[in-house]
Amino acid sequence: MPGERWVPTVKWPGCWPAVTHWPRSQRTNHMQSFLFLQLWMGTHPRGDAKILDNRISQKTLGQWIADNQDSLGSKVKDTFHGKLPFLFKVLSVETALSIQAHPNKELAEKLHLQAPQHYPDANHKPEMAIALTPFQGLCGFRPVEEIVTFLTKVPEFQFLIGDSAAAQLKQSLSQNSEAVTSALRSCFSHLMKSEKKVVVEQLNLLVKRISQQVAAGNNMEDICGELLLQLHQQYPGDIGCFAIYFLNLLTLKPGEAMFLEANVPHAYLKGDCVECMACSDNTVRAGLTPKFIDVPTLCEMLSYTPSPSQDRLFPPARSPEDPYLSLYNPPVPDFTVMKMEVPGSVTEYKVLALDSASILLVVQGIVTASSPTAQATIPLKRGGVLFIGANESVSLKLTAPKDLLMFRACCLL
Question: Hey, which residues does 89 pair with through a beta bridge?
């Protein structure tokens, strides 16, 4: 969280997530200072959770699950070949993360075979972000009408797209969806494949124009002026700054979510979220990053289907059995996320058994956890994490009259 750090506090049966943190150091010529924190909870080789209990011979969660296959649940074990199928994270973002998309399984296998140093596994990576604070991100292509309006209002954007591709996009408004897809692909590809020198020139012109208008007291919201200046300050001269004119800009309120299936372009800009995904670290990037960029792959793989920003929201379903539980159940088998909001007036809360391994994260509140299989009770507070084996129940006693907020990642087959 901005101004704070997520610190896991629980020993076994909790898992100790690997924390990847780029410090707030001076910028270098080669790499920006990344102002964000990632808390990983899962078994991916790049961040296998550590077990801090001397009674356990295995040192990581991945090793323990490999030796205790029944903890996954029978369906999960068989379907995902004895592996935990999801990766659970907390992200705290102050510097925008890259313009990116994630491959489907077929493409992931191909990319991993061709360039394992950039694509570290052969799995797909559908993912969901659930806001903990107001959370800003880019997600999916805007309606074509909005993009055409930006072409008119932002001549620098139009210049990079080119007159022919821009005209094709405008004409597609009166044509079928195939024409729209083709025109959108052409426009986006023209932008992303623009010569670096030309991009810098046009971006500098746009930044200068917006800055002068803002200094004169004019509102530049109609061309996302404030956001453009913010991204340019973070990534000077980066082609990704222009992507805001193609992609929907969303600001999620706490509890709101967006689901990112394969081939959907997106970027996280600012705020705190809980994130869950298939167990993969495959990302195809094209801007707003010093990391490896693969523009040809991104332009080829994307889903060029425009949609209104509100269609990118993924609402949870309320549980009919538990008044405190909401379910974020995306259309993929790899993961489901449960949100539990328990008022401080409740003294005890039962985390019900599932036929799936799960990971429980405490965001707010103070409890003591107990389980029929645990040798002792376990204190949990903000940042506390529990790994819960399949078919195990956990009882939480609220040790302070504070509302409890938790998220639980699992696999409901």
Answer: 40, 275
For residue 58, what are its two tokens? 């295995």
Residue among 286, 288, 165, 174 nearest 227 (CA): 288
Q: Does a cis peptide bond (omega within 30 degrees of 0) precede residue 2?
A: no
Which one is catalytic: 24, 142, 285, 312? 285
List of residues 6+ apart from 401 with CB closer than 8 A = 344, 345
User: Can you list the alpha helix ranges (DSSP code H) found in 256-316?
Assistant: 295-301
In percent, the amount of the chain with pLDDT more than 70 equals 91
Residue ranges for the chain with pLDDT beneath 50: 1-36
55 noted as active-site residue: no
Query: Which CB contacts under 8 angstroms, 24+ apart, belong to 70-73?
Result: 70/389, 70/390, 71/357, 71/389, 71/390, 72/356, 72/357, 72/390, 73/354, 73/355, 73/356, 73/357, 73/390, 73/391, 73/411
Task: Please report, as a single letter, which amino acid is at residue 227.
Answer: L
Read off the pTM: 0.90
- Rounded Cα distance between 120 and 131, Å, is 27
